[in-house]
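Recap from last week: sequence in, structure out.
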Amino acid sequence: MVFLIAGASHTGKTALAQKILEDYGYPYLSIDHLKMGLIRSGYTNLTPEDDGKLVGYLWPVVREMVKTAIENQQNLVVEGCYIPFDWAADFGACYRKEIRYICLVMSQAYIDAHFDDIRKYADVIEKRLDDSACTPQSVMEENRMNLELCQKYGCEYLLIDSIYDVKIPVSFKKK
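Predicted structure tokens:
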């Protein structure tokens, strides 16, 4: 089984992936690590700020890693903001039945009430070197856009609205 965890920056994708690792022993791939490896090694001229271009650059590699894990009957969690909302179109039915997807989305009300907490817990799993671009406006805009795209493409999402209580989705649990 492959689990795809998407969402805006600061929504807790890596924390959820870490929880799945701890509870089930499933390894996870942080697409951010792949991104930075390719950037730092000089395999791309893209920068960490090129989000739109990075989806098109990284997704074909990640997509084929997902297929390989399924073909090898391996469990894998893939987390990151570079999973396109039309991801399912890249997989045949035999692959899709082995993939679970969730997008973490924070509501405007949650961001308004808890922005200090969002910043406070930003480093809960991995250290952020420069978090200056994280503003209430940027977090709201990214989450609003992700919610619209989830609804447009029929993607499963978890709306974080009043309290932050992100648990392993039922659809991800072992059968």
